[in-house]
Structures are given as C-alpha cells and as structure tokens.
C-alpha cells in the first residue's frame, strides 16, 4: 500500500494515548455502529508508486494520439509553448488555495489581475472575472446575468455550439426560465428571424451568438448588435480567443457580455478538460458579473497590493440571494492562459490567428478541388463545413494515415478545423486522401 | 512587484510560430482596429516575473495549511506525472470511441471505485467543481419529483451551519431555501427539522460531518424523517475526508451526493481551481444524470437526462489524478485517511482548548472550530488578528468567520498528511500568540509584520474597484 | 441632512422623513455604525412597488450584506443615485444619505419617534 501519511502506526497510537483514546475505535465511538461500514471496501488494495505508474501509463497507452488533427468543434489542437506548463507546474501556484489571505497570496492575486487585464484587452471589454469552468458553463452564467423580473427570456442562435446550448438549457431548467432558439440560414443566424422574434418579445433579456460560430462562420455581429440593442436586450458573444487576434472585438461591436472557451490559450486537448471559461462585460454590468474578481488597492504602508473584491456578490456572503453558486473556478488554467498570451505577445497572437485562418482557406480550396464543396457561403475563420459523399469512409481512410479528420456532422457533412500546427504537406495529404477515396 | 505590463518593452518578444507555408488570407470580415496590449517580453524576463509571483504565493509545499473545510492535504507528485502523459493530454474529446479506450477506462475505474466508497450506484463527472456538483444533484432531485408529477415540492431544507454554496445552488435549481437551526450540540435540531418537513419538501442538503466538524449522531433518524415526508437526502461531500472508508453516505440514507476530488482525493487546488465535483446517485435517480457519459467503455445518455452542465466529460485530468491517488491508497489505505485526519484534528484540539475555547467541546471529526468570542471581548483581539498573527509563524491561517453560527470562529483542519512535529509546531505557535494576546494585544492586532505586504485596504478596493491595469497611466508618465 | 429629532424610526433601523404624503427613507447612525464601512448599495428602480416589512434593497460591507427593510408600502419615485458611486456617504452622513423617495404610501409599519428609538437602541445593545 502506498501512503502519504507521515506518522507511523506506533506514532499514531502514541498520539491517541496522549489525548486519552485507547485506539481508533475509541476515537470514532461517536459514530453510531449501524452507520459504519461492515467489512472492507470492494476494490483492489493499495499499490507502490512503481505499480501505479505502470497501471495508469498503461491506460494512457490504450488511447490513440493522432499526429495530425483537423478536428475542432469546441476543442482546438494549438501549440502549447514550453513556458506554459513550466510556469503552470510551479508548486506555489499548483498547490495553493484560493487567495483569501491576501498578505501571502500576492503572487496569485497579481497573476489573476494580469489575466483579467489581458482578457479585457483581447475582448475590448471593461471587466473580466477570474475565470469560470469552461466555455459552455460561462455562456450559461452569462445568460443568467441578463435576467431580471421583466426580462426573463434568453434567445440563442442555432449556430451556437449545441453543447453550449444544452448547458444553457440545463441551467434554465434550474431557474425555470425560458430559452428560445433563433434559427440559422446558410450556416449563420437568420437575421430576419432574429429581428422578428426579439422585437415582438418585451421579455427578451439577451441574445447569445457565437463568434466565429459552430460552423466556423464569422457572423455579421454589427448587424446583430443593432437588432438586439434595438429590442433593448443585451448582446452576449461567445468567442474564440485566438480569433480575436485578428477579428473586430466584441468591445468594438458593442457587446454587453463576452463568454468563451479559453482552451485554445495553451491548455491542450486533455479529453475535454480542464478548460477555461472566459467571462467579461461592460463597466455598467460590473456588479452583475459572477465569479471571483481581483482588485488593486494599497496596504497600510501605501504599497500597491491586490485583493479579492466585490465579494458581497458571491455565495459565501449572499447565500441563496447570490446570482451564482460558483466558488472554485479554473484559476490555474487562467494562469496558463496568461502565460500563453504573454509568451506569444500581440504579434504572436495575430500570427497564430493568421496562420489558422490562412490554412483553413487553403484546405477548403484543396478539398473543393477534391470534390468536397463548402456547404455555406459565409466568411469563415479556421473552421468550415463541407459536403462529403461518405463521411465515415473518408475519416476511416484518414485515420489509417494517423490523421484525425474533421467532425462528421452527419453522413454527408464534415466540420473541418485547421490550426497553426497543420502543415501544407498534411493538408495536401488530406485532400489527396479525399481524391483517392472518392475517385475524383 | 512590477506588473507584467510594466516589464513589457515594444518590439521584444518570443518567436513561437513558423512562417505561413500557404498563401496568407484573412477573412473578409471587419477586423480589430488596435492590437491588444499584451506583454512584449523575452522568455527570461517572463520566467523571472512568474518566479517572483510564485515566491509571493503559498502552496501546501510551503508549509502547514490547516484551512478548515478545504482539506489542504499533500498533492502527490505521481498524480501530476500521470496527468501529464501525452496519452491523456493530447486526446481530442471528440475522437472516435475506439481510440479513447484508455480515457474511458480511467472514467469507469474511478466511477466504480467512488461508487463503492460512497455507497452510490452511479456517478457523473461532468461537474467541474463542488458547487456545480451540488447544482447537478439538486436538478436530479427536481427531475425526480417532476417525473412523478409531484410538482408541489418547492423547498430545500439546509442547516444554518451550511456552506454558502448550498443555499446558492438550491436557488439556482429554482428552490426556496428553508434554513433550520443547529442545537446546542452543533447538530441538527430535530424538532425544527420536523416542523419544516411536509409535502412541500423536495429534499434536505446536509454536510456530515457538518461544518463544525461533528458527525450528526441522529443521522439515521434525520434521513428517515426526510424520506417519510417524501423528500430526498443530498450529501455534501466537502467533509468526506473525515469518514472515508468508515461510513458510506449511501448506507445512511443519502440518495444523491457530490464529492470534491480537490479535497478528499488529493488533487491540487491550483490557487482556486480547477477542481472536480462528481455527482453520485442511487439507481432510481440515474435516469436523470447529465449528458453524454462514459459507462463500461461506451458513451451513453441517460434516458431522462437533465442535460449537460459542462461541454464535455468534466475535468478529465483531475480525474486521472484522483484515480492515481486511489490506486495508490487502495481499499486498505482509504480508511487510514479518515482515521489519521480525525486523529490529527483531535490532537490539536486537545492541546489548544485550554487557551482557545472550542465551540463544541467533544471529540471532533477531521476539523474543529475555536471561538475567540471571549478573547475578542476581553482583549479586543479578533479571530482575524490571530489568523494574521499565524502568518508571522509561517502557518497558513485557518478558515475565519465560518461557520456563521459560531462567533469569532477559527476552523482548523490539519489533514492526515501532516506529521506530529508539524502539529506540535503549530500548537506552539497558537500558544505563543495567546501569550502575546495577554501581554500585548495591540501587537497581535498589528500582525502580520513579516509578510511582504501588510494588511490591505479592502474597503477602498470595493468602493472604487480597479479591476484591470490602466495603460493610459503608462503613457502619461 | 434631516434632523434626527424630527424623524420616525423602524425597529430594523431605518429612518423615515415625512414630506407631505410622500416619505423619504434612509438608515440610522446606529445601523451604519454596526454595519461598518459600506462599499455598495443596491437600490430598487423608480416605479418599483415596495411592501412594508420587505427588503427594498441592501447594503454591502466588505464581508457582509444586509437587507434594508421598507417601513412602508408604496411606489418609488426617486432613488439617490449618488450612493451608487459614493456609498461612503452613508457612513459619513447617515441622516443626509437618503435611499429612496416613496409616494402612494399606505400600510406603514409601527414607527418610533426619536426618543423611543434611542431607548430601543440602548436596550438592544
């Protein structure tokens, strides 16, 4: 049995005697006997580190690590700079608690303040929180922020990732609020339908769009903003942070709340988590934002310092009246995202975004030559949907070549994704495989 | 300390990405007008910046961390090594099922082991944190009553000693919160419970041992009463470390639970997260579990699922760490966690209670609560002051002012991974502070004196919030 | 600033100033002193209907939040927006820092006069 308990059995017994207990049974006599487990637990006994390492490594080896990945749909295969995990693995960050004790937590508090600043810079918003769980739960919290007694209905575009929509649905089942789906047309939000629906509903609290959307398309956010604000509702933009390296920012567009999946910022694929929920808003909404916030202040000697602030919004003080129950967040992931952004800098971020989208356009045109037509006409960033005579057949052929192809949306459509890690050679191979399979 | 933005010099930076090997093409959509003010900094400067920040932070490896209710135990290194295996970190969540057999084995093995430990029949790992686990569990309760057409059950009963997440989660699940009192022994007041049970009761949320560190002696009676009234019993696993391997929530009447893998199961807190808050339940609730799950190597969807609470399968790498911990400790080692956690807490309580009165003078579980009410009245030294004085001894303060039912509370949870010497040192520190309270209370109130930063102006921070760096001040200089 | 001697008081430590048929509501010096440094106040919106005995808003200190109980039922005609930016005014000048003006007043809670309130506070302390 491996253990992390330092005291030996003899020491444990001496300590028990020292404080007046015969043995452990005596120590636990306050628990009624009927409540106690009879016999032992039914799973294997403990093992040495050598054995455990071998068992868990064995599990990891049962997975297939693809050399080339053309699948996104909410989880993106970006390069993780060497600095990210070197810094994220520092034990002072890794093993620290939430920085409630400011005097000995200035490092973590300052790193969160820097993260908040970077997210504001990236999105063009005024206030960012210290992080939420992931993009989907951040979207659900963003929607909840806009609800009040009169504004009770959430509008969500069909072009938003269905996983995000589902989480919003679950949260609204909790709060007994209404979610209305706005249909898409040609892969993007149907603007006429949006205007018609939201104008007619005085209970409309917000409209959530994705930017770029699930199909990869860059929606006409300026137009959407004017429709949504015309109906006195709030605009929530669910963003891809890498895309904001080049695209017009939600701040410039006039969004009220920004949420998003921060995974592309150096977090790796990790079979879906831990990822990073981004949440930012305007100064006007500052008191409504959920989750922790770090603020700048001074100490008794006048030195600059940082503290958790506006805590009276949160569950540990406001309890059932709090607007969210969030307590733990994804602080270490936020730290890694900051290190990512500081490592690549403004030029590197723009370069990453440019590489992603340039390659997507190249792959789209090569696939088109191989007979896989683009499904939609809109401008796209680094994802796009193509028609495909037989998705399964193509993806299986790609898998043979160590390539994880795009995500099959159904038997005849595939959602492709490129990142800076996709080389021209790899993309040519994908297109050649398509030609081979379909004999184009 | 300089902010990273203050170390930035235009034109500096690191070359991470290659030249584009295809034609450069940006979308014909509106583009951002101004580059973001991100740092421009060399790798060396970046590394030193974060090393400075790390030195100004405090992890479990820096010393004793007896933060009540948070179970700040040692985070084993092997967990980290396993969680960084490329066979886990480089797996796309939407890969074909036959290419992720290792990931599904991790999920399955962990699910079966935790079900055995808790006496539950099934579990979801989607919740990313304890609070989200609570929310999920309450939605299971809500879906259950709804499925039976029993829609009049609008109330969740919560003791006054509960964590703030409990009432906040209940409100998010659309419930009215009914607060019941604790009795003079710190346990649920049975009469008050009975008075509030009825056809409107959806369920009871309970932390056991509770937040004053006591195992409720009437637990079997409590869960029976709730069930008789038609409600369900929710177990908040925040304090499972006290009874793991000794008591199974499923055996004492609980229908649904959440666990905190970042407390009981040794995964690191990361300065606030990521955690993991799996939600377990009995068979009759499994039909409502969230979203797409891995069961016996297959992806399944519960037939009457409440829907997803996060995008994929939860914080997977945290699950790898917890599984590593459980394989290491095994069925024989798990009960030792609780035994030693309880022993260490009682050892400290016993050796301090002559100076610092405990809120409830009895055998505690894995943590105990001291009340500094009389010290505060007599010497004008508060729980906050004592907490700050501990900083000068290199000890992370206990949890302060919680639970709310104890005045001037300090809540101490040593955990099982601390040695006797560490406990003895902490006891000496507490006793030395007490002496100082008697001799020079003003000096205690002025603590800490050894930390790089002194007490901060929290009022100013909240009145006039500065929540991001102001780049315009830079230009003005 | 209103003259504390002329005001009426609730047992939950709000003060009420009568302005014809309308009332102005704030919190007492005792209340602000026990709450400590206030950092924010949540006020109702103009046109909101208040119910006597129910919260009209709340005040936040760094580590706590406390409801402000409306002593009257009625409709809000004006809120003191200055407090949203400068909550410290409540600590500095509790009898000047009014929260809301209310019209269509009905259903007033039983209120104390200045002497009675002084006595009540002394008993409670």
Strand order of the largest sheet of chain A: 2-10-9-8-7-3-4
Radius of gyration of chain C: 13 Å
State the total count of DSSP E strands of chain A.
Answer: 16
**What low-confidence regions of chain A span 5 or more consecutive residues with pLDDT below 50?**
none
Please tell me what the overall shape of chain C is.
Answer: globular
* CATH T-level topology of chain C: OB fold (Dihydrolipoamide Acetyltransferase, E2P)
Query: Can you tell me the CATH architecture of the largest domain in chain A?
Result: 3-Layer(aba) Sandwich
Structural class of chain A: alpha/beta
- Number of helical stretches of at least 4 residues of chain A: 15
Q: Give the terminus-to-terminus CA distance of chain A.
A: 61 Å
The CATH class of the largest domain in chain A turns out to be Alpha Beta
Report the β-strand fraction of chain C as a percent range: 35-45%
Uncertain spans of chain C, ≥5 residues at pLDDT below 50? none
Largest sheet of chain C: 6 strands, antiparallel
**Spatial ordering of strands, largest sheet of chain C:** 1-2-3-9-8-5
In round numbers, the mean pLDDT of chain A is 97
Modified residues (N6-lipoyllysine) (chain C): 63
Protein name (chain C): Glycine cleavage system H protein
Function (chain C): The glycine cleavage system catalyzes the degradation of glycine. The H protein shuttles the methylamine group of glycine from the P protein to the T protein.
Family (chain C): Belongs to the GcvH family.
Describe this structure in words.
Chain A has 440 residues and is α/β, with parallel strands linked by helices. Chain A has two domains: 68-77 and 345-438, Aspartate Aminotransferase, domain 1; 82-340, Aspartate Aminotransferase, domain 2. Chain A has helices spanning 9-18, 24-27, 49-61, 82-88, 91-94, 106-123, 135-145, 162-175, 191-199, 221-230, 250-253, 315-318, 331-369, 391-400, 424-438, and strands at 68-69, 127-128, 153-157, 178-182, 184-185, 188-189, 204-211, 234-239, 257-261, 277-281, 294-298, 304-308, 383-387, 403-404, 407-410, 413-417. In chain A, strand 8, helix 11 and strand 9 (257-261) form a beta-alpha-beta unit. The longest helix of chain A has 39 residues, at 331-369. Chain A starts with 8 loop residues before the first helix and ends with a helix. Chain B folds into two domains: 78-325, Type I PLP-dependent aspartate aminotransferase-like (Major domain) (Aspartate Aminotransferase, domain 2, 3-Layer(aba) Sandwich); 335-461, Aspartate Aminotransferase, domain 1. Chain B has helices at 43-55, 77-83, 86-89, 101-118, 130-147, 165-172, 190-196, 219-228, 283-286, 316-352, 373-379, 383-391, 420-439, 441-445, 458-463, 471-476; strands at 122-124, 155-159, 176-180, 201-207, 232-236, 256-258, 279-281, 292-295, 298-301, 368-371, 399-400, 409-412. A seven-stranded mixed beta sheet of chain B has the order 1-7-6-5-4-2-3, sandwiched between helices. Chain B has a three-stranded antiparallel beta sheet with strand order 10-12-11, covered by helices on one side. In chain B, strands 8-9 form a two-stranded antiparallel sheet. In chain B, helix 8 links the parallel strand 4 (201-207) and strand 5 (232-236). In chain B, helix 4 (101-118) runs parallel beside helix 10, helix 5 (130-147) packs across helix 6 (165-172) and helix 10 (316-352) packs across helix 13 (420-439). Chain B is globular and about 75 Å long. The mean pLDDT of chain B is 95. Chain C has four helices and nine strands. The model of chain C has no long low-confidence stretch (mean pLDDT 93). The chains are: A alpha/beta (440), B alpha/beta (477), C alpha+beta (125). At the A-B interface, helix 1, helix 3, helix 4, helix 5 and helix 6 of A face helix 1, helix 2, helix 3, helix 4 and helix 5 of B.
């Amino acid at each position: 049995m491996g253990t992390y308990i330092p005291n030996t059995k003899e020491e444990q017994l001496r300590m028990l005697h020292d404080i007046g207990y015969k043995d452990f049974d005596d120590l636990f006599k306050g628990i009624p006997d009927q409540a106690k487990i009879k016999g032992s637990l039914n799973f294997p006994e403990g093992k040495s580190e050598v054995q455990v390492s071998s068992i868990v490594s064995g599990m990891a080896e049962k997975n297939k690590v693809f050399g080339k990945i053309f699948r996104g749909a909410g989880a993106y295969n970006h390069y993780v700079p060497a600095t990210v995990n070197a810094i994220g693995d520092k034990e002072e960050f890794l093993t620290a608690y939430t920085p409630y004790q400011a005097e000995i937590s200035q490092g973590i508090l300052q790193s969160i303040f820097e993260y908040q600043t970077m997210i504001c810079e990236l999105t063009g918003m005024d206030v960012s929180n210290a992080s939420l769980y992931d993009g989907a739960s951040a979207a659900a919290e963003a929607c909840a922020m806009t609800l009040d007694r009169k504004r009770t209905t959430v509008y969500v575009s069909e072009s938003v990732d269905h996983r995000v929509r589902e989480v919003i649905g679950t949260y609204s089942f909790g709060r007994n609020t209404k979610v209305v789906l706005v249909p898409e047309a040609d892969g993007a939000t149907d603007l006429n339908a949006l205007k018609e629906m939201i104008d007619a509903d005085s209970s409309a609290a917000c409209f959530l769009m994705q930017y770029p959307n699930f199909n990869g398309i860059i929606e006409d956010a300026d137009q959407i903003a004017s429709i949504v604000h015309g109906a006195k509702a709030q605009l929530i933009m669910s963003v891809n942070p890498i895309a904001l390296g080049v695209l017009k920012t939600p701040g410039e567009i006039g969004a009220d709340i920004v949420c998003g999946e921060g995974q592309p910022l150096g977090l790796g694929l990790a079979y879906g988590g831990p990822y990073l929920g981004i949440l930012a808003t305007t100064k006007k909404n500052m008191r409504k934002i959920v989750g922790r916030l770090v603020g700048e202040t001074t100490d008794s000697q006048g030195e600059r310092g940082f503290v958790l602030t506006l805590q009276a919004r949160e569950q540990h003080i406001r309890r059932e009246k709090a607007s969210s129950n969030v307590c733990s967040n994804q602080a270490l992931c936020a730290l890694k995202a900051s290190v990512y952004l500081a490592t690549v800098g403004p030029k590197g971020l723009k370069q990453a975004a440019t590489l992603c989208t340039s390659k997507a356009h190249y792959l789209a045109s090569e696939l088109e030559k191989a007979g896989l037509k683009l499904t939609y006409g809109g401008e796209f960033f680094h994802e796009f949907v193509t028609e495909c005579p037989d998705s399964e057949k193509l993806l299986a052929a790609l898998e043979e070549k160590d390539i994880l192809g795009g995500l099959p949306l159904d038997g005849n459509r595939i959602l492709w994704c490129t990142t800076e890690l996709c080389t021209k050679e790899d993309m040519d191979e994908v297109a050649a495989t398509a030609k081979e399979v379909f004999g184009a | 300390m300089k902010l990273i933005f203050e170390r930035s010099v235009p034109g500096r930076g690191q070359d991470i990405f290659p030249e584009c090997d295809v034609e450069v093409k940006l979308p014909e959509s509106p583009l951002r007008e101004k580059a973001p003010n991100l740092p421009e900094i060399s790798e060396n400067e970046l590394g030193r910046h974060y090393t400075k920040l790390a030195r100004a932070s405090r992890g479990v490896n820096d010393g004793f961390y007896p933060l009540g209710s948070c179970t700040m135990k040692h985070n084993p290194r092997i967990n980290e090594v396993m969680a960084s295996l490329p066979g886990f970190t480089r797996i796309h969540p939407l890969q074909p099922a036959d290419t992720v057999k290792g990931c599904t084995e991790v999920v399955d093995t962990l699910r079966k082991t935790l079900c055995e430990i808790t006496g539950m029949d099934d579990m979801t790992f989607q919740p990313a944190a304890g609070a989200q686990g609570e929310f999920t569990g309450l939605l299971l309760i809500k879906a259950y009553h709804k499925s039976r057409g029993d829609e009049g059950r609008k109330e969740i009963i919560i003791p006054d000693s509960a964590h703030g997440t409990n009432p906040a989660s209940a409100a998010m699940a659309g419930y009215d919160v009914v607060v019941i009192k604790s009795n003079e022994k710190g346990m649920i007041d049975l009469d008050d419970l009975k008075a509030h049970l009825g056809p409107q009761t959806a369920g009871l949320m309970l932390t056991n041992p509770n937040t004053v560190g006591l195992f409720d002696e009437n637990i079997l009676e409590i869960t029976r009463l709730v069930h008789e009234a038609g409600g369900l019993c929710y177990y908040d696993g925040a304090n499972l470390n006290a009874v793991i391997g000794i008591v199974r929530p499923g055996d004492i009447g609980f229908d649904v639970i959440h666990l905190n893998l970042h407390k009981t199961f040794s995964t690191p807190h990361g300065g606030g997260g990521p955690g993991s808050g799996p939600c377990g339940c009995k068979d009759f609730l499994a039909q409502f579990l969230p979203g797409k799950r891995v069961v016996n190597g297959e992806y399944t969807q519960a037939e009457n699922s409440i829907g997803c609470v996060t995008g994929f399968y939860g914080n997977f790498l945290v699950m790898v760490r917890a599984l590593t911990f459980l394989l290491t400790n095994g069925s024989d080692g798990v009960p030792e966690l609780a035994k030693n956690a309880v022993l260490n807490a009682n050892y400290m309580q016993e050796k301090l209670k002559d100076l610092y009165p405990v809120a409830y003078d009895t055998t505690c579980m894995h943590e105990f609560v001291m009340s500094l009410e009389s010290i505060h009245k007599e010497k004008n030294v508060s729980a906050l002051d004592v907490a700050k004085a501990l900083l000068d001894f290199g000890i992370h303060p206990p949890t302060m002012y919680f639970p709310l039912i104890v005045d001037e509370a300090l809540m101490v949870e040593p955990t099982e991974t601390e040695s006797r010497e560490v406990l003895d040192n902490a006891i000496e520190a507490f006793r030395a502070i007490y002496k100082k309270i008697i001799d020079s209370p003003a000096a205690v109130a002025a603590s800490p004196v050894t930390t790089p930063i002194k007490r901060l102006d929290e009022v100013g921070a909240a009145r006039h919030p500065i929540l991001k760096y102001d780049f315009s001040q830079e230009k003005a200089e | 600033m209103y003259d504390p001697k002329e005001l009426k008081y609730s047992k939950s430590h709000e003060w009420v100033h009568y302005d014809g048929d309308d009332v102005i509501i704030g919190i007492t010096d005792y209340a602000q002193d026990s709450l400590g440094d206030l950092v924010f106040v949540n006020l109702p919106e103009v046109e909101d209907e208040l119910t006597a005995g129910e919260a009209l808003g709340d005040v936040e200190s760094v580590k706590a939040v406390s409801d402000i109980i409306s002593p009257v039922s009625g409709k809000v005609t004006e809120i003191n927006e200055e407090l949203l930016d400068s909550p410290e005014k409540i600590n500095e000048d509790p009898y000047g820092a009014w929260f809301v003006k209310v019209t269509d007043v009905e259903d007033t809670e039983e209120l104390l006069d200045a002497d009675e309130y002084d006595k009540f506070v002394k008993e409670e302390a």
